[in-house]
Amino acid sequence: xxxxxxxxxxxxxxxxxxxxxxxxxxxxxxxxxxxxxxxxxxxxxxxxxxxxxxxxxxxxxxxxxxxxxxxxxxxxxxxxxxxxxxxxxxxxxxxxxxxxxxxxxxxxxxxxxxxxxxxxxxxxxxxxxxxxxxxx
Length: 136
Description:
Elements lengths: L5 E2 L2 E9 L4 E9 L3 H8 L2 H5 L1 E5 L17 E4 L7 H6 L5 E8 L10 E7 L2 E6 L9
Parallel strand pairs: 3-4, 4-5, 5-6
Antiparallel strand pairs: 1-2, 2-6, 2-8, 3-7, 7-8
């Protein structure tokens, strides 16, 4: 399958390693950079269900406890499916895109509606650009 530039109002913003081929998942971006931010998110189960957690690296082990809460997805800007998060994440059938390389935007702000397409070894990310992600 080629990279579609638009799907159902979402615009392609990048791709990375797909950890589990779970297909299509939708959610809202929540940037987590520090363990205290993860602890705060863990106290809000309803927010977790719709969250696509965006975090800098796949070695951020503080993200692993979130897997038990079943977020909509996880995006990292570093790491591989062989990292701790990738290995543990496979058991939870959650959409995880690791080492995302953004195209046409330089960030994914909190609140941005996201679509993750995880098929095979590739994970593609789409955003509703009018609602948050900033063009580069």
